[in-house]
Structures are given as structure tokens and as C-alpha cells.
Design a protein that fits this description.
Blueprint (H helix, E strand, L loop, with lengths): L4 H32 L1 E7 L10 E4 L2 E12 L2 E8 L10 E6 L6 E6 L12 E2 L2 E2 L5 H27 L1 H27 L1 H33 L3 H8 L1 H22 L3 H8 L1 H23 L1 E11 L4 E13 L2 E9 L4 E9 L2 E9 L4 E10 L2 E8 L2 E10 L4 E8 L8 E9 L4 E8 L9 E10 L1 H14 L1
Parallel strand pairs: 1-7, 2-6, 5-8
Antiparallel strand pairs: 1-4, 2-3, 3-4, 5-6, 9-10, 9-20, 10-11, 11-14, 12-13, 14-15, 15-16, 16-17, 17-18, 18-19, 19-20
Helix pairs in contact: 5-6, 7-8
Length: 467
Amino acid sequence: MKISSEAKVGVFVLLAVIILGYLSLRVGEDVFTRQSGYLLKAKFDNVIGLVRGAPVRIAGLEIGFLETMELEDGKAVVTLRINPAVKIPRSSSITLKTQGVMGERYIEIKVRGDYADVVGEGEFLANVEPSVDLEAVFKKMGAVVDDVGAITASLHKLLEDGDVAQNIRYLVNDMASLMKRIDTLVANNEDNIGKTIEDLKVASAEMRQAFVSLNKIAAEIQEGNGTLGKIINDAEMAGQLDSTISSLSEVALKLNESKGTIGRLINDEEMGSNMEKAIIGLNKYMEKADALRTSINYRGEFLADSNSFKSYLDVKIQPQIDYFYLLGVVVNPKGTKTIRDVYTNGTLNRIEEWDRSGLLFNAMIGKRFYDIVLRGGIMESSGGVGIDYLAFDDDLKLSFEAFDFTMERKAHLKAYAEYRLFKSFYLMAGYDDWLNEPENRSVFGGFALRFDDDDLKSVLGGVSLMK
């Protein structure tokens, strides 16, 4: 059957009308749905960038749109139309967000609380979270960029100074040289380091053996062996101990009845007052003795250039917390250098002599000002001064010393750093006598041991117990 052209046009027009009608019904249905939601309000300090029709979302899903905005008491009141199928707990929060960095603004609701209490028609969501002000962020970023530019310009100007740039290069070269020397020092003493580790292993084994012995003693006590074990486990000895305690109780009763010299001392008011005065005087004396702090210090420095050890042994007497006296001896493997002028047949000859057999002496007085310590006196048998900077609760000390000011040589300058690794153990490194001849200069590293009054009391107590 042949279909005419007019019939084909008619069928096409009919299909177009049907499709158009369907689309109109969908659009109408959508408008009806948007208009059928319930209204919800919120109050913001600033809604810049927000426009009518902006979406309202929960967890990224659109559940409504912004219907109106109006000004009330200097704040923006927004009215939202929410899908009637979506319920929002009253304790939920609301905030403004931006899609991406420069995208559209939208309203985000974070659901919190129980669905038993939800907001109703025309009510406010009171929990409003502040939103990010992008304009303020960009202003701060601009200020940061300006500051970075100013710092870069200052560094550039500083590096244009030839002396500064040259000093920086010298500093970098010196640091590289120092690290190289330290590497060499470690490599040369690899055997010593290995020996130290082995000694630590031996000490650990001895401590383990000591714990085994303690366990054995505890087991013997539990079994009733030894005096302490018999006291704990032997009923007869326990009875004797009870009898001794009873005798002591009788003695205490007699003292309370003022019998004997000790009893009168306890109960007689006049004698007690005299005794109290004597004790007060003794306490004052003991307080002065306690205020006098004493410490013993040992420091060993390994001199890299001469491959030898330089040792110091000092006694530090501290009458008060902010000043001290220091006395000590120094064993210097280099010895002391003496220059003599000798005339031979009318000719003046200058002779250098080295004495490596004797000891050098330290005798200094020091004063502390906050984190700075100034000290002076005799350093290595010559006049000198020193300054220390203390940091990190005195765990780190940076020191500079200058001594041996003579006409024959330049001053002896020394700089080093100490760091407390354990309670009485310090590691140190520095550079010694860098103004004089190369054979006198040396990078050094080493350790220090310091024992204060409490440590010495523990040691002496242990000695007396062993006796």
C-alpha cells in the first residue's frame, strides 16, 4: 500500500504534538514539585556570590533550592524550599560553600541529631557555620607573596655584596673540610669504636649475671636460708624479734616517765628548749654546707692532627647557683713550648723547647648571667678568659676560650660544643688553636664525664657498704 506525502506529513506532525505535550507535562510536573516543598530559613552574616535558585545539598545531593533573600537587622535571611520527602533534624548545621575554587556558590546542610525532632514549615536552622571568605584568603595570599618578594630582594641585595658572598663560600668550604676530617677521624678510630661496642656487650652480660644472682638470693630468702630468710620464715626467730620490740616499748615508756638523761631531755621544757636552739644552729650550718655544691669533671679530647689524647680533670666548687670556682690539671700530649734567646759567639739564636713531661693547671672563677657564663683566671698554666652559652636546659653548651697571650706567638683560641647524651655523659667536638702554625691547629672530638654531689654520695655510699 502506497502512503501519500500528505499522510506522511500528518503522521510526523502528530508525533511532534505528542512529544511536545509530554515534555510540557514533565516541565509542569517539575514546577509543581518545586513549588510543593516546605520552606526553611537561615540567617547568614554574608551571602556574597549566592544567587536565587542556588542549590541546597546534603552529602552532595540536591534536596532543594534558594527561593528568596532579604535583609534583616544587618544580616541576610535566606528562604529555602526543601523537597517534602527530605526531613532535617533540628540540630543540623548549615553553611555556604563554593563548587571548586571559582565555581558557583551553594548551600550545604550537615545532618546531625535525631530525626525525632525535625524542623518544620518556615522555621530557622539556628546552627549556622561560618563560611570561607575567598576574598580575604586571596588578600592574605597576596600579602604573603609580597613578603616573599621582599625577602628575595633582600637576599639578592645581600648576595650582591662581594665580601658577604666570599664569607659564605669560606663558611661552606670550612664546613666541608670539617666534615671530611670528622669522617677521617671516625675511619681511623673504627677499631676503637668496635672495642667500645664489645665492652658494652660484656657489661650487658655482667648485668644479666647480676640479675640472675639477685633472683637466686630472692629464692634463698623464700626458702628460709640466711638471716633475712630465717626472720621471714622461722617462727622462733620471729618470736625473738617480737620480744625485742616489746623491750623497746618498755624503754619508750621509761623515757616518757622522764627516767634517765634521755627521758629528761624529752620531757623537761628548759632542756628541750636548749636542745631546740642547738638543733637550729646545726641546721643553719648544714644549710650552708648543702648550698656548697661540688662536682668532679673529666674531659678527654682526641686531637685529629696529632692522633693523641688531651685530658682534663677539674673540681668545680659552687658556693651559689650563679658563681663558681674551678681547679684542675691538664695532660697535654703536645706539651708546652718555650722560646729562649741564646747568644753564641756574639750571635743571637732563638731556640724553641718543648716540655711534654709536666702538667698544666687550671684555676678559674666564673659567674653566670641567665644562659651566659663568663669565666677567667689561669687556663693551661697561662692567663685566659672564656665564655659559655647554655641552651636546652643546659644539655647543650657552646664555649669559646682565649689564653696564652705572649709576644712570641698569637693567642691560643679554642671553640667547641658539648651535648649531654646521658645523665653524666657528654659528647663534644671543636677546633683548637687555629690562629697559630698548622702543626698547632687541630680538630678534636671526645667526651666528658661529670659527677655532682648526689653522684658522689652514691659512690661513697656504695664504697662504705662494701666495707
